[in-house]
Design brief:
The chain is α+β, with helices and mostly antiparallel strands and about 850 residues long. It is about 35% helix and about 20% strand.
Length: about 850
């Protein structure tokens, strides 16, 4: 063993050791309890960043810990390899997306291996390989058969200069990222997955997500957005038309002062003669920070009170939710209030808080919020600064005036249905998933267009439908697939006539919506349906994922789509679960100089530099020690140096005592025979074993677990072994400390395990088990308070009765001096913690 710790040499040595023995290879063992640990797979950009280091270090600690606890652990890794950056690189640098992608994969794979991550690379998944995306296409066809796929017109970002569709992130201030020309909204026919068919099941399934952060579950619920309400028809004045609206607040129907409809609503074209202005509104659709409207000049009639209501075309109304038309009640909806103020529209209060209502509801003075007496009268609405969105009492609401909001909703809904004005319905905010992308680098959609037969699915026997390699990338004219004659032109499998292939590719979210299922099988070109249906299918052994780890930025779409896809695959009869992820950990961001690390902010730290200077074990340890996993991590150079000093200190302890440790054998017949210092170290070791184990099990509090190991190291450092028993305790403490530290910093602990005389392979050792009796302190610290304020502390024996604890507190010299002759009113004993003496003044 060298005196100086050389992380580069040590880490490469043990990485070779693990690889040569294939220690992380996973096999299904039905008799062994399983644990499936998974971090969200990365896009192969070519470089890992500190967010990756933190995410993957968290997962690796969990995987290594669970292996040591006797679990059969599946811990795979792969690549979310399709996507726009590869296509942009092809346009910018003239390199094919596949070449760019595979080159980046090799580079990042080396970086991940250099971190010492315990992945089973024999299950590696790369989503841009035909052997993978073949099954995207197969699931698409099965969904098409079941009516879960359909095609409809939808708006996309269109750059007329480049003649291409742009992703949302390519539109900057309404302009194209490449040519800086203005971007329009263009209507194109798009493919959609009917995820709304599963809306209620996805919502109900949120109740099963007990191991997810509450805020993520809430985000899922809100995105699905179940709303119980009523659909009501508002006739359009002067036309044989009506606007059907959906509202969850029928109690506010008497307060409607204008209507808003989506630019794509069928009536928009009829109501607006100035098509250029209508097009402007369409361009602004979905921009929530800018609420824009266009007065159509037409009016609707409120079916409950006959009020004439102006109809606006508004950019914030979408066709996919409800009916594409909304009633606007500015007094009781903040968005409507802001819109009304912008366009000088009336505000009518129809709900007031209960205490105000008691003062004034009467035939002559129905609403204290409309008219408030201020020395001759004054208009309260002129002073209204925001919408009142809470529950209350109805006013100015006809026969429903005076009812509480919750009762009024039911009564008004009943009235509407009885009069034939509408019907009670349940709606969801969730929209069907548009999967069409006018891109090359994605899964080809397996559909053929025939002049005779219409839309024809690609036969399953012809899958995978492979992306052609010989395409040109110009960034103009839509998808490069449009110019590939060999791909575009084909034969109809039904009639044998000439036909065209679909040139759109699938949204890359499709790739990541089931990759965790694909890991359950070995990599390669296999027949998945056959594997699924095998009596020895691994998927029903491994699924669901026991611990999923990733950023909170994926809390909605990726997780929702994965939950949807899992149910679809279930309904195809291939798996027997509904929820893919049993537990979810959303790690915080890495922050430097007050902002998230990014190239644009110039505050990144290169993990390669960190590993070269300090070693992977230090990088891992710092990322786990600096903050709890779910919190943001504030970068600190001093923190990195501190983690490195700790590992050097552990190395130094063992270097100085290596011969003593190699010759010592742990054997203690009776701990009562130990000297006080040895007994203290022995007890501290068991306490640390307990602390680290419980901190890992309790929401993965790695930072406090590492702090406990540092405390144990302090105790080891101060211990000077003299007798054989002392040496035995010393070695026991060091062995347990190395076992505890191994999942966090695996390379150095492998080296030191061997250095103290053990056979190589700490990774194959069992997790240490503490002895509860040995961990228990003989004495505890008693806190003594006077009137709730700390006044003294003393050590007492563990487990003594309350009466004795009370007596010790009252006889404490410091307490007696402070109390003087004041009368004791009460003595409160909190066993094992404190005594609070309540005294008079």
């Amino acid at each position: 063993m060298k005196e100086k710790y050389d992380p580069q040499k040590v880490e490469l040595k043990w990485q070779r050791y693990w690889d040569e023995r294939r220690l992380h290879k996973t096999e299904m063992v039905k008799s062994q309890k399983k644990f499936y640990c998974l971090e969200m797979f990365p896009y192969p950009s070519g470089e890992i960043h500190m967010g990756h280091v933190r995410n993957y270090a968290i997962g690796d600690v969990i995987a290594r810990y669970k292996r040591m606890r006797g679990y059969n652990v599946l811990h795979p890794m792969g690549w979310d390899a399709f996507g726009l950056p590869a296509e942009n690189a092809a346009i910018k640098h003239g390199v094919h997306p596949s070449e760019w992608t595979y080159r980046n994969i090799e580079k990042m794979k080396d970086q991940l291996n250099r971190m010492g991550l315990s992945y089973d690379w024999e299950r590696e998944v790369t989503t841009c390989k035909p052997e993978y995306y073949r099954w995207n296409q197969w699931v698409f066809l099965k969904m098409l058969e079941r009516g879960l796929v359909y095609k409809k017109f939808s708006y996309v970002n269109w750059c007329p200069s480049c003649a291409t569709v742009l992703a949302n992130e390519q539109v900057i201030d309404d302009r194209c990222w490449r040519c800086d020309n203005k971007v329009n909204q263009k209507k194109l026919e798009q493919w959609f997955f009917r995820i709304t068919e599963y809306a209620e099941e996805l919502l109900q399934g949120c109740d099963e997500l007990k191991g997810w952060p509450e805020r993520v579950v809430l985000m899922q619920r809100n995105w699905i957005g179940r709303g119980e309400g009523v659909e009501v028809d508002f006739p359009v004045e002067g036309m044989d038309e009506h606007l059907r609206i959906f509202t969850t607040r029928p109690d506010t129907l008497f307060g409607v002062t204008f209507m808003c409809i989506a630019p794509e609503h069928p009536l928009s074209e009829k109501l607006v003669k100035d098509k250029a202005k209508l097009e402007e509104i369409k361009v602004k659709c979905g921009k929530e920070d800018e609420k824009t409207g266009l007065n159509s000049g037409y009016y609707a009639l409120n079916p409950l009170n006959g009020d004439k209501i102006p109809i606006y075309i508004a950019n914030f109304v979408v066709m996919e939710y409800g009916t594409g038309a909304i009633m606007s009640v500015p007094a009781h909806d903040q968005r409507d209030f802001d819109f009304a103020r912008k366009y000088d529209l009336p505000v009518k209060v129809v709900i007031v808080p209960e205490q105000k209502e008691r003062e004034a509801v009467s035939p002559t003075h129905p609403s204290p919020w409309r008219w408030e007496s201020k020395g001759g009268g004054g208009n309260l609405l002129s002073e209204l600064t925001e919408a009142y969105e809470e529950e209350g009492i109805l006013v100015d609401s006809g026969q429903f005036t005076g009812l509480k909001s919750d009762i009024a909703r039911k009564e008004i809904t009943k009235f509407i249905e009885e009069k034939g004005l509408g019907t009670a319905v349940v709606n969801y905010k969730l929209r069907d998933w548009g999967i069409s992308r006018q891109r090359y680098w994605g899964t080809p959609i397996p559909v053929i267009y025939c002049g005779n037969c219409g839309i024809v699915p690609v036969p399953e026997k012809d899958l995978p439908l492979i992306l052609p390699e010989n395409v040109r990338f110009t960034g103009k004219g839509g998808s490069p697939l449009l110019e590939s004659e060999t791909f575009l032109n084909t034969i109809c499998p039904i009639c044998g006539g000439n036909a065209k292939r679909e040139t759109d590719t699938m949204d890359t979210f499709v790739d990541s919506s089931w990759y965790f299922i694909r890991y359950c099988f070995k990599k390669g070109d296999i027949d998945l349906p056959t594997e699924f249906r095998s009596p020895d299918s691994e998927v029903n052994y491994w699924m669901p994922v026991d611990q999923y780890i990733g950023g909170v930025e994926h809390a909605v779409l990726h997780l929702l789509y994965s939950r949807f896809f899992t149910r679809v695959i279930r309904d195809l009869g291939l798996i027997n679960i509904s929820e893919p992820f049993q537990n979810l950990l959303t790690q915080g961001m890495v922050i430097k100089d007050g902002a998230k690390m990014s190239k644009s902010k110039g505050n990144i730290v290169d993990p390669n530099y960190l590993i070269e200077k300090y070693g992977a074990d230090t990088a891992r340890l710092f990322s786990l020690f600096a903050a709890p996993p779910e919190k943001d991590l504030d970068w600190s150079d001093k923190g990195v140096e501190g983690a490195h000093r700790f590992l050097n200190r552990v190395w130094g302890i063992i270097y100085k005592n290596q011969f003593k440790l190699q010759s010592s054998k742990f054997k203690i017949d009776n701990i009562s025979d130990l000297q006080a210092s040895a007994l203290r170290l022995y007890r501290k070791t068991h306490q640390t074993m307990k602390k680290v184990s419980t901190d890992i099990e309790r929401e993965y509090h790695f930072n406090t677990a590492i702090a406990a190991m540092m405390e144990l190291t302090n105790e080891i450092t101060s211990f000077q072994p003299e007798s054989d028993e002392d040496c035995s305790v010393f070695k026991f403490a060091i062995e347990q400390m190395l076992l505890l530290l191994f999942p966090f910093s695996p390379h150095i602990t492998e080296e030191l395990w061997e250095a103290i005389g053990n056979k190589p392979g700490i990774s194959e050792q069992k997790w240490p088990e503490w002895d509860e009796d040995a961990a228990r302190e003989d004495q505890i610290e008693l806190v003594i308070q006077l009137n709730g304020k700390l006044r003294s502390k003393t050590m007492i024996s563990q487990g003594i009765p309350d009466d004795e604890i009370r007596k010790i507190a009252l006889e404490d010299q410091k307490i007696k001096e402070i109390m003087g002759n004041r009368k004791i009113k009460k003595v409160i004993v909190v066993k094992g913690k404190l005594v609070n003496i309540v005294i008079g003044e």
